[in-house]
């Protein structure tokens, strides 16, 4: 079996073009949101907060903000990417083309992940305007962001295949992902939570993601980086397995 | 018969709800022909196309295209198959030329500006190439779908109801396009509600209903086998029985003996000749008549008749 690389590239570039068609909104929205978070949490509240582990509060929240936008945008980009062809019927072309699960995933998920990396870069650049920060492990930070972006692109893809209405498409990000991210240590260290909530928080998988990225930034985190990395890989593997089953059975894709 | 480029054997599809959309369909498609698949709504036409193109998972049966097993060597086979769906399914915000370039890439071919221009011009879309698809009329959108399907230069093209919902002028224009594709050597399988379309375009016709392929034959052979001429001859004076001089013709009395009804022929003109012979015989015998009304059965009559027989058999 030889992969249809041109097919993969076509899906990838088309998805990126879809992103660029709404570039104004795609770029401006994260810039505005990040700025608002910095004004509210960084300047207004952060000025009264002590440094956490020697890191200024405004700088402390940067990895959390990146993760907050990354998870939301990646999931919705990837889910829309596959849901819209299903909704409009244009998926017929994908299903009738000589592209399999690998090409489809690399194309759709790769594009969603690429968009997320662009967004992460925008957020970090915007953050630089508000607070000086230093990334302790820049290479690991980029790798970790890519890993999380890829995992949640896969998750978004599953969501987009599962959803049979716009309502369902929005339920998971709004009702689960955003609350879990807010409760996942975006704006605080879970050590700041009283018992038993600091223990309960460890059942929130987002804690490990935020913590992992924070470690790459400042070399310190709520949980060990290895655990964060391990959990991210497990999530990635689960998503790949689910998608393989989806393609094998044709669930919600082929009648 | 030329080697078939598509072979379906025992193709069956039962949907999860229990509906049997295809029931052990056997069909061979020859290279270079236009094959029309006729059938009422829900007959299984779109399911059959979907099964070959990868949109529907068959329950059982085998499918081979260009010698490749569609279940195993689907990549090789699909590269040579194009599909124009029934629904106007397009990314409405995408410019026309991007949509077509995307389709070509999806099928693994490198960009080819000359080919893109050729396809766009052949479908009168060249001037619209920069426009978003949503700005086009329904007919033009359908052309975009055809252009997308032709972008990867398929050898076998499926057209699912290509002229559904388009006006007469555009339909005839579409027929010219299909003819031009055939001239380029593309084998075409089209489904249609318009029997006129099959009569006009097809080399062979298949009639499908309730998942059963009732008949597949050359269009002309089908007309010859099942076609009929019907003539109603209104007599100047009523008669009580068929005179012996015309007993050799397939005629009967109707309207209380005031008219003769001829039903015969085979769709090749034999019926018309017999009607002419009959009228000459009547004149020779001094049997006067005042009107003749003849009717050649169409593919539609055959279609309706076949479906009627199937309904009666159920």
From TrEMBL, chain A:
Domain (ABC transmembrane type-2): residue spans on this chain: 21-250
Pfam families: ABC2_membrane
Residue ranges crossing the lipid bilayer per the database entry: 23-45, 57-84, 104-127, 139-163, 169-190, 197-217, 223-247
Membrane topology reported for the UniProt record: Multi-pass membrane protein
InterPro entries, per the entry: ABC-2_transport_permease, ABC2_TM, ABC2_TM_bact-type, ABC_2_transport
GO CC terms, sorted: ATP-binding cassette (ABC) transporter complex
Swiss-Prot/TrEMBL keywords: Cell membrane, Membrane, Transmembrane, Transmembrane helix, Transport
Superkingdom of the organism of origin: Bacteria
Compartmental location: Cell inner membrane; Membrane
Single Gene Ontology MF annotation: ABC-type transporter activity
Family: Belongs to the ABC-2 integral membrane protein family.
Protein name per the record: Transport permease protein
Organism: Qipengyuania algicida
TrEMBL record, chain B:
One annotated GO molecular function: ATP hydrolysis activity
Cross-referenced PROSITE patterns: ABC_TRANSPORTER_1 (PS00211), ABC_TRANSPORTER_2 (PS50893)
A Pfam family this chain is assigned to: ABC_tran
Keywords: ATP-binding, Nucleotide-binding, Transport
InterPro entries in the cross-refs: AAA+_ATPase, ABC_transporter-like_ATP-bd, ABC_transporter-like_CS, ABC_transporter_ATP-binding, P-loop_NTPase
Annotated ABC transporter domain residues: 6-235
Protein name according to UniProt: ATP-binding cassette domain-containing protein
């Amino acid at each position: 079996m030889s992969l249809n690389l041109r097919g993969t590239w076509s899906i990838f570039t088309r998805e990126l073009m879809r992103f660029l068609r709404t570039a104004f909104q795609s770029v401006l929205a994260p810039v505005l949101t990040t700025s608002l978070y910095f004004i509210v949490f960084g300047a207004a509240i952060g000025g009264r907060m002590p440094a956490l582990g020697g890191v200024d509060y405004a700088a402390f929240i940067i990895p959390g903000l990146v993760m907050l936008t990354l998870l939301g945008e990646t999931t919705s980009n990837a889910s829309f990417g596959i849901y819209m062809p299903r909704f409009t019927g244009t998926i017929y072309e994908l299903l009738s083309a000589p592209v399999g699960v690998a090409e489809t995933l690399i194309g759709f998920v790769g594009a969603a992940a690429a968009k997320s990396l662009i967004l992460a870069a925008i957020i970090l650049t915007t953050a630089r305007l508000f607070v000086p920060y230093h990334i302790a492990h820049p290479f690991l930070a980029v790798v970790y962001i890519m890993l999380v972006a890829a995992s949640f692109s896969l998750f978004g893809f599953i969501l987009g295949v599962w959803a049979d209405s716009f309502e369902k498409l929005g339920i998971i990000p709004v009702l689960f992902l955003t609350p879990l991210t807010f409760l996942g240590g975006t704006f605080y260290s879970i050590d700041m939570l009283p018992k038993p909530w600091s223990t309960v928080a460890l059942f929130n998988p987002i804690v490990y993601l935020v913590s992992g990225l924070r470690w790459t930034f400042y070399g310190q985190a709520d949980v060990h980086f290895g655990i964060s990395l391990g959990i991210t890989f497990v999530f990635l593997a689960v998503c790949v397995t689910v998608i393989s089953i989806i393609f094998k059975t044709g669930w919600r894709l082929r009648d | 018969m030329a080697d078939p480029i598509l072979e379906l054997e025992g193709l069956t599809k039962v949907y999860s709800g229990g509906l049997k959309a295809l029931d052990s369909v056997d069909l061979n498609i020859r290279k270079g022909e236009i094959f029309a698949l006729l059938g009422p709504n829900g007959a299984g036409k779109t399911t059959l196309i979907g099964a070959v193109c990868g949109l529907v998972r068959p329950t059982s049966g085998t499918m081979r295209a260009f010698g490749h097993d569609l279940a195993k060597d689907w990549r090789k086979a699909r590269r040579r198959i194009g599909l124009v769906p029934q629904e106007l399914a397009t990314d409405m915000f995408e410019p026309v030329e991007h949509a077509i370039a995307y389709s070509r890439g999806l099928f693994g071919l490198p960009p080819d500006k000359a080919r893109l221009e050729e396809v766009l011009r052949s479908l009168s879309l060249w001037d619209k190439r920069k426009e978003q698809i949503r700005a086009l009329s329904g007919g033009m959108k359908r052309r975009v779908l055809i252009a997308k399907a032709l972008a990867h230069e398929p050898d076998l093209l499926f057209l699912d109801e290509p002229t559904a919902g388009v006006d007469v002028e555009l339909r005839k224009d579409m027929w010219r396009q299909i003819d031009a594709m055939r001239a380029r050597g593309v084998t075409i399988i089209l489904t249609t509600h318009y029997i006129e379309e099959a009569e006009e375009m097809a080399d062979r016709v298949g009639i499908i209903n309730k998942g059963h392929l009732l008949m597949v034959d050359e269009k002309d052979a089908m007309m010859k086998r099942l076609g009929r001429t019907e003539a109603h001859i209104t007599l100047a004076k009523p008669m009580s029985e068929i005179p012996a001089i015309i007993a050799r013709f397939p005629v009967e009395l109707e309207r209380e003996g005031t008219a003769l009804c001829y039903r015969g022929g085979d769709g090749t003109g034999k019926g018309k000749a017999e009607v002419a012979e009959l009228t000459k015989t009547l004149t020779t015998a001094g049997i006067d008549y005042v009107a003749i009304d003849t009717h050649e059965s169409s593919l539609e009559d055959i279609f309706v008749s076949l479906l009627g027989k199937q309904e009666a058999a159920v």
